[in-house]
Amino acid sequence: MVKQTIQIFARIKPTKVSKAGLYDITEEQDGCMLNFTLPRELSEGLVNNKRESFKYRFEQIFDQSAKQDEVFEQVARPVVDNVLQGYNGTIFAYGQTGSGKTFTITGGPEKYSDRGIIPRTVSYIFDHQSKSSDFEFTTHVSYLEIYNENGYDLLDPKHEASKLEDLPKVSLMEDSKQNIHLRNLSTHKASTEEEALNLLFLGDTNRMIAETPMNQASTRSHCIFTIHVSAREAGSATIRRAKLHLVDLAGSERVSKTGVNGVLLTEAKYINLSLHFLEQVIVALGERTRSHIPYRNSMMTSVLRDSLGGNCMTTMIATCSIEKRNLAESISTCNFAQRVALIKNDAILNEELDPKLVIARLKREVEQLKEELAMATGVQRSEELSEEDLERCEDAVRQYLEDRDPDSVINIGADMRKIHRCFHLLKKQIKAPPSGQQAERQRQAEREEALPRAPAESSEVSRLQQLISQRDNEINILVNMLKKEKKRAADAAARLHSLNPEQLQRLTDSRSSEMSVTQSRASVDSSIGAKNSELRMGEMSLGRQEAFETFRRDYQKKHPIEDSKRELKMKYAEAKGLGEKVNVTRGKINKLKSSLEQHRMSRVMQGLVDPENPEPDEMEMEMRSQMETEKQSYKEAFAHLRSLKTEIEHSQHLLEKSKVQLMKDFEIWWAEQTAALQVNAMHKPRLIASFIFIQEKQSRLNGGHRSAWRTPSSRASSLSTENSRVSGPSSAFFCTQSTSRQASLYPDSVVDQAAGLIPLTGDAKADADIMAFMRARQHIAQQGLLFLSSACLMFASVCLFFSSKSKVTGRGI
Length: 813
Ligand SMILES: Nc1ncnc2c1ncn2[C@@H]1O[C@H](COP(=O)(O)OP(=O)(O)OP(=O)(O)O)[C@@H](O)[C@H]1O
Prior knowledge:
25 helices; Kinesin; 813 residues; extended
């Protein structure tokens, strides 16, 4: 058992503002000190006392310039090493919104070097596994999100989440030993790093898609990515199982400061409540005398029960923002961390015996004991030998006969039935007529025995015989080589035959090194995320698509997307170059190999070397050394290519995530615009005619479906024309969009007349007439009678004008 207090680290988020004496970090013998010095006006306000200086001890403090790899090495790697040894581990980030929790745990959205603890941990685990060939590892992952005290499975493959409620709900269950189980949380086997990273990406994308618009600005949920590792040494029945929780908590700021209402307030209350319960658990654990720890108060503390005061090695990273307005929250984060540092955990090695292996071992033992008993008592066992036993006897006899050691024995145990069986097999061997080859060899030996030979003659004969067998060997080698070549050619032809043109193209492409295969697989995997955004794009109406294009052009975050694309392109180019290099080197190695073989062969043929014990000559040594150099360069290039492949996959994931984010931001913007326009429309009933006019036109653009204009999106774009005149810049986009469409379909004059000359009258009947007319006009327009419709429009306008005038004056026309 390892007794250890929770290790605490702090990380300061980079800021453009100069630190101007607000904080400093000092190194001490047993850790680091973080000192905050508050300006007077702050110490009197936000923090409820007048202290100006606050000091906190941490295991280590990462200042603004700290890089992600440094954080991984210091914070995560020791925990992960323990997990690989069989100890549970937890790493959690705590801090106010925007202080860098997600950046630390998952990573930044732009650069590969910004990847956080989770992807680095995944790489580390699989790297370790590939190097430990004595162990058999299995890795599973799960991803849980806790929002408003409800758990959701972020890795559910059956659902395409568009909101959180679409994801399966996870609930807590407690067994008789009070162990917590998570019902409905799927765990997925990951056999490779790539598979695990794809799962992480799937979960992150689901998390992003399922965010409610209200919680956009900040992650208002807790997320727990769990890696389950089990390891067994070859031949051992003992399995070590450990799990690693990587936790990104929700922002810890106080409700009063968030200044929120409605849904957001409910969220904030839940977050604060669950963080409050977390604090209660931590306080209770810190008090030695407390026997009851209130884990059950919240889902998060229930899930993390083992991590807090239980069987786990736990590490916390406190994320702090040192901008003036955030100092109070950072101080409260550090206070929290100090309490956490008091908690003692008792981590135990999670070892268990694999029941299957134990049963097999016990069965073997029982068999042995039965055999010994039979020998000792003389009461022989009478039941038939099993198939397995029969096979074992055959193997034992074969090995015995093949063994050249005259002292070898058959080791089959004390069972008389098996001993009889072995004797039976031996007798069969002796009695059986020799096979063709054996018979020939026997005859030859007999002939040789029978021949009386002169000593000189016999030495000449044996020299010639040696030469013949040497030639036989050479012929065999050549025939085998020929066969291999033929087979390789036939396989290649068959493969080419089975490829479709696209694959053929890919094959001929220089990227057709190993890299291209893995890359294409990666792109299939990364399409999981792309699917969401593409699907949505496909579902958009034409107007909305156009709106999206405009939105994308002006999108604030477009630059990172463009940067990522550029970076990805560069990496592709680099991978292509490396792939070519790998191919060239491989070609060189193959060429050297065949030259070496030829060289050896020719030496053997010339009788310059003993085929049984070929001594390398100078040329061979030279070729071998060249081959070693090439192999080294191949290895290096290949390793580089592999790491580049991981980088490319990561960048693809980031790009996909940015695209999903863009899509989400667009949806929110669109909803806001629609809502604003609807409010305008309610206050301007007289504008309905132009609204309908544009609606109808929009519906025409959308393929002439009447129903299209009922959708909020088309309603918004129709209203927009009016809105652009009334509410100005906020709807400038709609204005541009509509006018550009109008210009292409209708002469400006007609549109203006339609929108400007036919306002509604306020009289129900007259307005109904106007609407009926508009629809009729739409119908005519759809049949291509644009000119006629314009004439009708003018005529109707005149009629309506007189009709409304006559109503006003009380006279008929
Ligand atoms: N150490 C850092 N280096 C560079 N950028 C950072 C760092 N820490 C945070 N950021 C950036 O600051 C922004 C907010 O960070 P992040 O999303 O990680 O905060 P958070 O604490 O997880 O917030 P929330 O509680 O809302 O989820 C992001 O754009 C992130 O990329």
